[in-house]
Amino acid sequence: MTPLPPDWQATFDAYNAALTRRQFFRTSGTGLGVAALASLLGPRAMAASAGADTLHTAMTEPWKIAPKAKRAIYISLIGAPSQLDLFDYKPALQGRFKEELKDYLGGQGERLTGMTSGQASFPLAPTIFKFAQHGQSGMWISELLPHIAKMSDDLCFIRSMKTDAINHEPANQLVYTGSMQNGKASIGSWLSYGLGTLNADLPAFVVLHAKHSSPFSNVQAISSRLWGSGFLPGKHAGVSLRTQGDPVLYLNDAPGIPRELRRRMLDGLGELNRRSYEQIGDPEIQTRTQQYEMAFRMQTSVPELADMSGESPATYDLYGEYSRTRGSFASSALMARRLVERGVRFVQIFHRGWDQHGSLPRDLASQCKDVDQACYGLVQDLKQRGLLEDTLVIWGGEFGRTVYSQGTLTETNYGRDHHPRCFTIWMAGGGVKAGSVYGETDEMSYNIVKDPVHIRDLHATILHLMGIRHEQFSFKSQGLDQKLTGVVEASVVKGLLA
pTM higher than 0.90 for the full model? Predict the structure, then answer.
């Protein structure tokens, strides 16, 4: 390794001495000025300069409760699956094919998207798919999901979800970060921040992007805001595993750089970062150091994680034929099990292409085939390994779909627009009430008539199951106590709890 120049220390000190305005105010948080301010404002004034990890280092913090789940897997279906064609069965609609709903919609006072607001006609579109009741719960499930139907008694269905957003990007930000505004922390980052990791050699929050097999899918673009750390320290952002090449970039050491030399380089870099932090106080310096160390440990842990050669043929059969195809949804579901099995706190699988504004019967059937058996395999695999009891699995999109058709309606083809007023998700394991159905919609799956569940209520319930009181769980940023559930009232949905 090339030695440092003789004057490196002087250069380093001079650089750190050149404080910027931002650095001045940051370091002032430990000086006489903040002491004087604290004497006027009390202990609360000190919260802004609290360290990033102080919240979850003491088990006596008042926001902590006994957890039902140690880890979670969130299956995020980007684009919004149609509740009318999958879970919210409305048989009375079958005799009302093409009934005009323009007057009905006018009475609802709903804001429509720009894609359908100009339609001259709003014909009612009953589902063309057959439904049947399954399990002791008697849950109505579409023929498109035969494997999920087999495990209905393992699942907790919420038929009365609602949201505030009518378009994809704000709706996704709301469901995955708790706010339609940019810059907020994602749910996985909150759990990483509050609960830490169960395995120091792997990230606490891992993101998988499953490729879809359908050639017809309307694939929505998504941004890293959905798994970003926002105002939380950067180390809590989700780490994406790639579907091609190395799971993580630069996983292998460069040619000619043995591991011992890399260790010495990191030690030297860590010492420089330590001195820089002492003089500047920027918490992101600590984040960089921790990420360098995590990357070093991942060089050993990730290759073992990615090597699926030890999985049995029976396991691959359980997840389905595409489970051997890297990057498929089935392979991602199997990887999610391997991750939580090794102590990853939160795994999020993004599967895009659920935005069926047209050709819904064709495209929705293809999307369901992509995920149906793999979801069944994941839940059953966790169950038989004794992991389901303390692993929370969540399945759903960002909103629902309309009962009326977007565009041309025929007996075999239709599309559906966005519908924020009601939709269905399901959860499994991790302390939820298995074999249950919560909430109810009206005869057209248009409005909720029983037990509404807002996105904020879902977040409060997830945090509760993971051992966190959402009302007291916050992070000081820009002078505010930032929360996943925001400042609007949110409640734990006790009817979902086992």
Answer: no
